[in-house]
Amino acid sequence: MAGNTVTIWYDGTQVLQTTPAQTQGMSLAPLGGIFFSTFYGGHDPSWGPQTATHAYFANFSLSTSVQH
After folding, report:
1. Domain span at 30
2. 68: in domain
3. How much is the pLDDT for 16?
4. Of all residues in the chain, what percent are helix, strand and coil, respectively (each to 5)?
């Protein structure tokens, strides 16, 4: 994941910007776990972009209960 960054905003304020490697073994928040998955591309490099691309995901929420 070289070159990737994770930026977390809370109520319009940036509270964290780091690389995934920096977060390994760190306790950043009192979370029991979170899973997020996205897919881009195919089974070989020919599916990949020719230039740098970015993905923006917004309006996530964390809750102590399951919400549908």
Report:
1. 6-47
2. no
3. 78
4. 10, 15, 75
Query: CA angle, 25 as apex, 22 and 26 as ends, to 5°?
Result: 70
Which pLDDT tens digit goes with each residue over 13-60? Answer: 888 787 765 555 555 555 566 777 787 777 888 888 888 888 888 877
Sign of CA pseudo-dihedral 16, 27, 61, 58: positive
| Residue whose token pair is 């490697």 | 21
Overall domain count for the chain = 1
In one-letter notation, the amino acid at residue 50 is Q
Q: Is residue 59 part of a domain?
A: no
Residue 66 located in a structural domain: no
30 in a structural domain: yes
